[in-house]
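Sequence in, structure out.
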Amino acid sequence: MRIAALIVAAGRGTRAAAQGSGPKQYAAIGGRAVLTRAIDAFARHPEVDEIKVVIHPDDADLYQNATEGCGSGKLSAAATGGASRQASVLRGLEALSAAAPDVVLIHDAARPFVSAKTISNVIAALQERPAALAALPVTDTLKRTASDGLVTETVARAGLWRAQTPQGFHFAPILDAHRAATAKGLDTFTDDAAIAEWAGLEVAVVEDSIGNIKITTAEDLELADRQMTISQMTSAREPRTGTGFDVHRFTDGDHVWLGGVKIPHTHKLEGHSDADVVLHALTDALLGAIGDGDIGQHFPPSDPKWKGAASILFLEDAARRVRETGGQIGNVDITVLAEAPRIGPHRPAMQELIGGALGLPPNRVGIKATTMECMGFVGRREGIAAMATATVFVPAEGK
């Protein structure tokens, strides 16, 4: 049995595009286009022989960039879509007709997370039925309302399903059904299973996974990107945690450097470099996470080269060392121990500067401060200390 996948990617994705993401099927999630991920889901499936994508006529360049090197040799020339989804599917089916597949799986490009199990189950259902679709049972209570928004009825949810894709069909019958619907001027079908039902074909339901989400809005894109980023960080990787601590005494001066920010104060911190306890502690935390010594080893105070140096250089070097191990920094967290100066007003600037050095958004840079309730050297205002932790994801050994 020859199986083709037809991926519909001719839409404009207006709800996602409204916030600047462009056609959603070409937006990146986890560094790869939504469409690319959808194609690869079918390319990896051993039962799928050919993949054809239907694209908008204005998207040829976007499509070329998104599909460079993907498809595992199964991707055939793209078809150009029509004015509606229904018209685009028909054009895709016509383009496939020369290859005469036995079965076609029609899938929305906006569903990049379809599982191999769902694809297999739809294919299996076609052994006994002419059509089958992935779907989820309705679990929420349904209400019907009038035009004024008031509830008129509670709808029983037993036997109700949310239609998803892929939707699979024996090829010749679904092509005939699409042609017949177009010939009659019927263009209000919301999915291909509805056309099959109209044509009198039996349609089986295959229970899908809740992970097979459809990306519709800019918020969906943001959530999917975040999930993929986290998945990539943790897949075939193991987390490492490093800690750092540093302390410097006060001496005569009129400012301190903390977290890369110059803060006016009654004294300055004494040290070979700029004595930035925050960046020193954080540098040691990163080095500790990858087992690469400490700041004193890499930047010894005996070396005049580092006299008065900006400590951001030390932090950037530690970040470089993490990258060279294949690692990725997940988040960092710093606690400053000081009676003065106040840290709160300078926190956003510190987060921005540290995040820039480490390639992290500000919300992954924790900055906190506490006093020592007048106890110890910090409480006596003799100096400032800082503690830091860093979480780093490195390639797992043996993977």
